[in-house]
From TrEMBL:
One of its GO terms (cellular component) is cytosol. Residues 3-83, 128-221 form the Cysteine-rich domain. Pfam families: CCG. This is L-lactate dehydrogenase complex protein LldE. It comes from the Bacteria. GO terms for molecular function: oxidoreductase activity. InterPro entries: Cys_rich_dom (IPR004017).
Amino acid sequence: MTVGLFIPCYIDQFYPRAGIATYQLLERLGCTVVYPREQTCCGQPLANSGMEQEARPIYAHFVETFDRFDYIVCPSGSCVYHVNHHYDVLPESEGVTSVRERTFELADFLVNVLGVKTLNASFKGRVGIHNSCHGLRGLRLGASSERVGADFSYYRYLLSMVEGVELVPLDRVDECCGFGGTFSVNQPELSAKMGKDRIADHLRHDAEVITSGDMSCLMHMEGLIRREGLPLRVMHVAEILNSNGTRE
């Protein structure tokens, strides 16, 4: 299959290593991966700021750019959720419907499309999983505490295949980190306090690495970690799944 790789703005600008790891991981698993250079933002920042009409040309460009691929894969739950659920404002067409249906978050794609059951990967360290709100409650990449049902986590399932990873338990496995895009700009004090609480949970359980499928959440927490000089680092889940056991 041919996969169109969609890389979010903040990964492109600040964390290219997460995008490269996603590309390499998909290739290792047998996909033909294409990174269309004409891609831009999915339009989420504008829409979240109340400017969805202004974002519609960006939506249309996304559809035009990615319509030719078998699947569109993105290492970001929030961007994928936006494409899946908010592109309904575009005039209905076969292209729009098809792109919305074929756009997958990375872990969802690995589990439910590729059916991954083993990974040739190794990473030594104590890892805590941060579940982003869009990924957990929007895309259902794991169980959340407010819903009754079986406990599951795509990230936990995939990371359990990585040799050497020790997944640490957390007290509040589905708590928001406080980033929330423009929320962190409009409510900086509250956002920072939520982020510190999230980090403290990982520290209590001696985590060495916080991982997530959303680099935006990790970016928020990394800023707090750096300012406080805390003994933690952040890594996108793709970096661990693509790891060969060496420490960066």
